[in-house]
Write a structure and sequence with these properties.
By secondary structure, the chain is of the alpha/beta class. It contains 11 helices and 12 strands. The structure holds nicotinamide-adenine-dinucleotide.
């Protein structure tokens, strides 16, 4: 009788490949959601070094995970792009951004997705779908900025301006997302930012500014028009200096929690085929971030 009951419990094996992934909050988010679904859900951080992200070692890691019965993997820096040519198929989210953060093993086939793109997209729609988006400024054109730019480009934004301290990075990301954008996309140097903020409908921070280890702000929200909205993708801490100051001035805001929860919930659904309880996952994430802040106060 007991053996029969255990046999019926679904087991899922997943993991996160990347450099320095040990403190990631994604494993506990998946395991808690799996437990709510009555699954034996095991999600392991798999720390790699930059040399492991090259084609040969990464292909062997994928092969080994498949042989060991993994249902799927999340992938982060530095393997998000090097993994592309090793996969059999790419979902549109991964194809558009040119990076993969989620791999599903479907028998012998490997399918790459990008749930940073879909995660930010859903968080943005939940708060700002009904707003006017004449001119939106994205500050930060790194790995996460590329996912945000891809999601924004697919929305009704007349003018998307990508700004980075490295003008080359801003220009090259603008060039990459332009073919999939509904409106115009430009890349500019960070020096142009003070002139753009007063005329922006909204602005998203995708720089590390605001993280516990990287305090401060990439720009001053006092430069924004009164009705502009402000998004931050940093979520450790949840209330960054940028968001606190923007809220104090009456701006509508979204924190990075929505993107972080959304990427995990979308990956959970890709791995298991079952709908994630997003509200419960958001509560878990808030608890995890608060518990982490209590152990490592700023
Ligand atoms: P990254 O280092 O790849 O990119 C950061 C970019 O910001 C760089 O291109 C850098 O030149 C630019 N930058 C730095 N200071 C700037 C300034 N003052 N003005 C303009 N540009 C500036 O980092 P990343 O992987 O893209 O991550 C950025 C942040 O996003 C992380 O620190 C993390 O907190 C957050 N993040 C959130 C989520 C989420 O799910 N919410 C996911 C990934 C990353």
């Amino acid at each position: 009788m007991i053996a029969h009951a255990l046999h019926r419990r679904r087991s899922i094996l997943a993991g996160l490949i990347g450099q320095g992934v040990a403190p990631s909050l994604t494993p506990p988010m998946h395991e808690r959601e799996g437990a709510r679904h009555g699954m034996n859900y095991v999600y392991r951080p798999i720390a790699i070094e930059p040399s492991d992200a090259e084609a040969g070692p990464l292909a062997r890691l994928l092969w080994a995970a498949q042989r060991m019965g993994f249902d799927g993997l999340n992938v982060t820096h530095p393997a998000k792009q090097t993994i592309l040519p090793l996969l059999d198929e790419l979902a549109p989210s991964a194809e558009r951004v040119g990076a993969v953060n989620t791999v599903r093993f479907d028998g012998a086939r490997t399918i790459g997705h990008n749930t940073d793109v879909t995660g930010f997209g859903s968080a943005f729609d939940a708060s700002f779908a009904g707003s006017a988006h004449d001119l939106v400024v994205l500050v930060g054109a790194g790995g996460a900025g590329a996912a945000v730019a891809t999601a924004l480009a697919a929305r009704d934004i007349a003018d998307l301006i990508i700004c980075d301290a490295s003008e080359d990075r801003a220009l090259s990301l603008a060039e990459r997302v332009r073919p999939v954008a509904r409106g115009a996309v430009r890349g500019v140097d960070a020096e142009a930012l003070p002139g753009l903020l007063p005329v922006a409908s909204g602005v998203v921070n995708a720089t590390p500014f605001g993280m516990a280890a990287h305090p401060g702000m990439a720009f001053d929200p006092a430069l924004l028009a009164a009705d502009a909205w402000v998004g931050d993708i940093v979520y450790r801490p949840t209330d960054t200096e940028l968001l606190l100051r923007a809220r104090a001035r009456g701006h509508r805001t979204i924190s990075g929690l929505g993107m972080a929860m959304g990427q995990a919930a979308d990956a959970f659904e890709i791995f298991t085929g079952e709908p994630a309880d997003r509200e419960a996952m958001m509560n878990d994430l808030k608890d995890l971030v608060a518990a982490e802040a209590a152990v490592h106060p700023v």
